[in-house]
Amino acid sequence: MTAAVFFGCTFIAFGPAVALFLFTIARDPLRVIFLIAGAFFWLVSLLLSSLVWFITVQMSNKNSAAQQKGLLIFGVVLSVLLQEVFRFAYYKLLKKANEGLLALSQEDTMPISIRQLSYVSGLGFGFMSGAFSVVNILSDSVGPGTVGIHGDSQHYFISSAFMTLAIILLHMFWGVVFFEACERQKWWSLGTVVLSHLLVSCLTFVNPQYEGSLIPTYIILSVMAGWAFSCAGGTLRNLKLCLTCKDKDFLLANHRPR
Length: 258
What we know:
- The chain is an all-alpha fold.
- The chain has helices at residues 2-24, 29-59, 65-104, 114-141, 156-184, 187-203, 210-231, 236-243.
- Helix 1 packs parallel to helix 5 (156-184), helix 2 runs antiparallel to helix 3 and helix 3 packs antiparallel against helix 4 (114-141).
- The termini are far apart.
């Protein structure tokens, strides 16, 4: 039973993201490099936020439950803000890198478009975020032990897997909307991305009332998916062609850089 829980939760959390990677990124070495770089930027942001949180915890009163809870909230907010700061820094770096690649290229167009970069970097952020969110939970799911034996929720593992899936996909959508906002200088869009990221992260404090965190998170996921689809140039006609398998430019396979 523990093996079934482990593999089931793993496939739920990472299945769609791995499929996207295999079908749209793995065949292009340049996209793989940018995805790994995006994952590294997220990792650096986590390192900095963890360092600040660790220092503040050591300086605080460890016997005060209220103070420790406040520090936990502070750590979550700081982590989200640092992630978005590093997303912006990565956008700036990619702009410079793309200009350099264009100068070295013999073609008149960029080897990879900003829209492709936003998708790839967002998925890199999501992969690393998802891995750190659920890896310890998956290791516990192998056993020994029985979830809920002391009256706790039995949906801990499955709920964590679905939350991780949502976070991975949200990072991908946030990346697309964020980069598009930077390109068009729509600062209100940037603010919306940051606020929605903060909201989703803070919803986890509702746990173990999982319906209170999962349902709003998936509503936000649906809204961000539609927004990212629109930012990527998607239309209802394109969606219809894709669903009926009549779109020859499926996903990013033959997407022309702009």
